[in-house]
Design a protein that fits this description.
Keywords: Signal. The chain contains 18 helices and 14 strands. By secondary structure, the protein is of the alpha/beta class. The chain folds into two domains: 216 residues, Periplasmic binding protein-like II (D-Maltodextrin-Binding Protein, domain 2); 209 residues, 3-Layer(aba) Sandwich (D-Maltodextrin-Binding Protein, domain 2). It starts with a helix and ends with a strand.
Amino acid sequence: MNKKAIAAAVSVAALAATMAGCSGGADAASAGSNITNCTNKIVHADAPKVSVWAWYPNMATVVDNFNNSHTDVQVCWTVAGQGGPEYAKFQTAIQAGKGAPDVIMLEADQLTGFELQNALVDLSKYGAGDVKKNFSAGSWKDVSQGDSVYAIPVDGGPMGMIYRKDVLDKYGIKPPTTWAEYETAAQKVKDAGGPAFGDLGSNVPAALTALMAQKGAVPFTYDLADQKNISIHLDSQPAKDVLNYWAALVKKGLVATQDQFTTDYISGMIGGKYATYISAAWAPGYLTGSGVGKGNEKGTFAAAPLPQWDPSNPVSVNWGGSTFAVTSQAGDQKLAAEVAKGLYADDASLTDGWKTQTIFPLNQNVLKSDAFTNNAVDFFGGQTANKDIYIPAENAYKGFSYSPFSVYYYAQLQAETVKINAGKVSGDEAATELQGIMVNYAKSQGFTVN
């Protein structure tokens, strides 16, 4: 397969808004493999150094924890941008054959595209299996291809529903447990002159894809062992059902169409413009970082499980989450693998991450701990949301089959969502258009579509 075509397929230029639940992180020029240009302090100067690109907000603390506890290796950390900007720099380094770090933070949905370019190291030969027990089957599947493992999970985004207690109480509504109940509740609030019940932002295609998967859609089936073949089913009935459902909510005026992660959306959440926020476990950190829950609205938010299509057969899905991978340009791949396995894996760093709501950790040592399980979440007015909602959702998550061109796909789904929100296409029409676009694109990149 043409490597230039592959590079185009995974180019990040098309979209930089695949939020994964990790806020903060300034875009900065990267030192690449220059092990002398570090953002952090090197504690043991004589130890070999491993360069790392990562954007977690508390990364300075995480790196210091690692370096203070290791005399055999030191992390040299650089922020090369958050999400899209970092991926663009990594892609440039791949094409140049130099300039990549030893270890890189990647969102799980971006791994396959880089794996296809032989840009990531199979960590199974460097003891990845030693830490497999620390993670759920679903989160491990997201970083694996067959027996190969291309990254170590750190955080994830099991989905649930945040809601405003004041709004639901005002209209006598219990948190909906099914999508049918969600629509009924939305209609009741609208009829009473209340706020939008939710929001279909066009800039959250990863979330919409997760909701399609919840209904049973399998948008892509791809196996790295069979690189030239891919199955695409974006016009399956489950996918159409979900797009039709949200298109109908928009048409009836039951949900808003505001892009999320914007000032307007945040102010809307603060002001009670939306009754619910279909989101992931990292959302409280994102919202509190923007000021929500710290003013008059403090204590008005609560969490509930994600509404289901069939309550007798509940399905858990994931939105976002990041990993540490070793690049094929790493000077010492074995040593870099030790960093990937050990960075953000110690108790101090994981505790700092969840207590500051920077991440939702995937490490089972945390998920099974009393402190995390029974944590009374201040944002949710003391609710034990981890135990009641997010931990069960994470442990029930089965994993997802990502395509080698997630960024291009997200851009096309975003465009279709814009048309749905404008009333220009139905859910059926959007699914059909999306299927045709992605099949043609895959073929143009040298794939055989099954």
